[in-house]
Design a protein that fits this description.
Structural class: alpha+beta
Order of helices and strands: HEEHEEEEEEEEEEEEEEE
Shape: elongated
Mean pLDDT: 83
Low-confidence stretches: none
């Protein structure tokens, strides 16, 4: 008898059977699928949040620019003489006509549809279903720049002149402000719409991406209240008291959560709206245009004309 045999144990190694392997694979695949779905969901949530934040930031910035200009419309310095005399004819880099022209300061605020003949010649790429806003005013400056236009102001007189040197200033004791006209409009060249601003030199500057619609009604006192009008319904341009601006802004990239909202551009409850224009904007009716995140903002601004 082998003395070692009784202490010898036989070990058997048993592997996984087929069912156990399949169950393990199934659990692993399930966990992987859940993890991937969570990653995709988190990514989509992040992108949607980013798009919404982008839209809100763009619409706030666009409205801020319009608000800053609206507060200064018609201001040409502390004087009692009314509009300044034009000493040097104002030459602009734009060829806009009539009240949209920078060379005419008699109308300090002008709002017109982009299809109007006064605008079409100088802003051929403006979004046709939006408004163009022309504002004219003067701002205080600390220095002169050659060949720009300035307003020399005293309590007794005010004059607009082109600065070509010290000798071009009409009177030496004057306060000097810079003539600052702007045109605001929406540019839509088939890609991302942009709110633009054009100055006296005729150069267009991009202000805010994604602005699709810019609609403006002008307010006049009717009885004890202010009534707003689309420009083609405005009785006259005198004694304007307020300006109501509506913006519609979309995200630059397409959204995974498109909406089918209808945006009001002119509210007939508070305004006399044009019968020749669309007073609502419904992107879902346009091919592929509902696949963007959108928001709207309406603001009322007091005028001091």
């Amino acid at each position: 008898m082998n003395p070692y045999k009784k202490n010898c144990k036989i070990f058997s190694i048993k592997g996984f059977n087929l069912i156990e392997i399949l169950v393990s694979l199934a659990i692993g695949v399930f966990i992987s699928m859940v993890s991937v779905q969570m990653m995709v969901s988190n990514r989509q949530t992040y992108e949607e949040t980013s798009r919404y934040s982008e839209v809100k930031e763009n619409i706030r910035f666009a409205m801020l620019q319009l608000n800053q200009s609206s507060r200064s419309i018609g201001f040409y310095g502390p004087t009692t003489t009314g509009l300044p005399d034009i000493v040097t004819p104002i030459v602009s880099g734009l060829t806009c006509l009539g009240n949209a022209s920078f060379s005419d300061i008699n109308i300090s605020l002008w709002v017109v549809e982009a299809t109007d003949v006064s605008i079409k010649n100088c802003l051929s790429h403006a979004e046709p279903d939006s408004d163009v806003v022309v504002v004219k005013y003067a701002t205080f400056v600390n220095e002169y720049t050659l060949n720009d236009y300035f307003v020399a102001v005293s309590m007794a007189e005010s004059k607009i002149f082109k600065y070509t040197g010290v000798g071009s200033i009409p009177f030496p004791t004057a306060n000097i402000l810079k003539y600052t006209p702007y045109i605001y409009y929406v540019k839509n060249n088939g890609s991302i719409p942009v709110m633009m601003r054009v100055g006296l030199d005729g150069k267009a500057v991009e202000l805010s991406n994604g602005v699709e619609k810019l609609r403006v009604q002008l307010g006049k006192i009717t009885g004890n209240d202010i009534r707003y009008y689309d420009t083609d319904k405005l009785p006259d341009i005198n004694d304007l008291k307020a300006m109501q601006i509506t913006l519609v802004v979309r995200s630059e990239g397409k959204s995974t959560q498109p909406n089918d909202k209808t945006f009001i551009l002119c509210n007939t409850k508070y305004a006399t709206c044009s019968t020749d224009r669309k007073n609502t904007y419904h992107p879902v009716s346009l091919n592929g245009m509902n696949k963007y995140k959108r928001t709207t903002l309406m603001a009322t601004m007091q005028l001091k004309l």
